[in-house]
Amino acid sequence: MGVSTNAILAFGFDLGEELPEVWANEEGFEFTEWAEKKAGLVWSADDKDFWKKRADMLAALPVTLETHCSGDYPMYFLALPGSITSARRGTPEAVTTKGEPSGRQLAAMRKFCDELGIQWKEPAWHIFSYWG
Question: What is the rounded distance in angstroms from the CA atom of residue 127 to the CA atom of residue 86?
Fold first, then answer.
C-alpha cells in the first residue's frame, strides 16, 4: 500500500520554508486565526452570525496562505483566494481554465504584501503537493 499526496494548483508565489517576519514569531501560526484577530472577530456562543461574518471576512481578504510540502515540514504559498484547486489523495480533479487574475486582484495582493512587509515576488500559476 502506497501513500499519495494532494496536488494543489494556485495562483500566487512561494514563500518557502519560513513564514514572513510578520507571522514568524507566532507559535503554531494559523492564517485564519490571524485574520480573525486582525478583523476583531471573536467566537461567542451568543453570536449567531459569527460563522457568516468569518466567511465574509475571509472572502474579502486579497490573499490566503496555503501550506504545502508536508505537515511535519511545512512550506508556504501566498495565493489569490478562489485560485486554488486541489486533488485529494489520488482523486482526479478536472481543472477548468481559470484565466489570469484581474489587475485589481494583483494590486490588492501587492498592497497586502507591502503593508505587512512581505517580500513581493511576481505571482504565477504553480502546482505543488501536500502530504499531511
Answer: 10
What is the Cα–Cα distance from 64 to 105, expressed in whole angstroms? 12
CA distance 116 to 72: 26
Q: Report the number of distinct structural domains present in the chain.
A: 1
| Other CB atoms within 10 Å distance of the CB of residue 49 | 8
Q: What is the pLDDT of residue 2?
A: 53
Domain extent for 57: 6-131
Burial annotation 10-27 (CB, 10 A radius, 16+ → b, else e): bbbbbbeeebbeebeeee
Q: For 102-120, what is each residue's pLDDT tens digit?
A: 999 999 999 999 999 999 9
Question: Rounded to a whole number, what is the distance in angstroms from the first to the last CA of the chain?
Answer: 17
- Domain-located, residue 115: yes
